[in-house]
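Deliverable D4.2, example record:
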Amino acid sequence: MKLKNKTAVVTGAGGGIGAEICRAFVAEGVSVAVTDVRLDAAQKVADEITQSNGRAAAWTFDVADSSAVEAAAEKIESQLGPIDIWVNNAGVSYITPFLDCTEDLWDLTQRVNLKGTFVGCQVALRRMVPRKTGLILNMSSQSGKQGNSHYAAYCASKFGIIGLTQSIAVEFAGEGIRANALCPGVVFTPLWDDMIEDYARKRNLKPEEVRPYMEGKIPLGRLCTPQDVAKAAVFLASDDASYITGQAINISGGSIME
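Output generated by the structure prediction step:
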């Protein structure tokens, strides 16, 4: 096991990529705090893990509420042990033409995606710095490397996450702490259930044509999966990646190469 006796916090872990990262971590010996704004979803993932003899517990908090995140972190450490890994995965995404993007939608996207990551990093670092060890993984996107139409708010938040990651990687490297960002391509998680019809309409496609359309633009010919992202997370959390920090790792099948 690459991560035996480690403790990790994963936000937005009630499904999709976050849940898969939890499963992959547990398979490598990690005790996982499964956190989500939906407690029932987090509890379902935690129960699945414990029923398979893994160690997990569920929590709910608003990732942008620093007091709530701080309070949860204290309880997590008292139950599972000192936090070694913190994955800022929680996020929202809306497909909206730029001139239709309201200030409320802009503010919500930055609040959850960027401020939520900022808060998680601060809470994690306050615990990691005294122990001179730790890893932070922030979920960016291929949209954090290249802008896309109808995604201005989302792209801005994901570009910001890469800048934040690089900044803390430099500032805390001397404290024995690494920070990296994951940049997946399109992953058909439940988040897409609410977006696919809108995406199809704005690109003059039928909903059933969206997936083939996207796959046709990827050199490897398939969409990214939650498992692809989880495997990268395990690698970056392990000693195999002990010399990797401040990086924004593409997991995009060749569609983004910078």
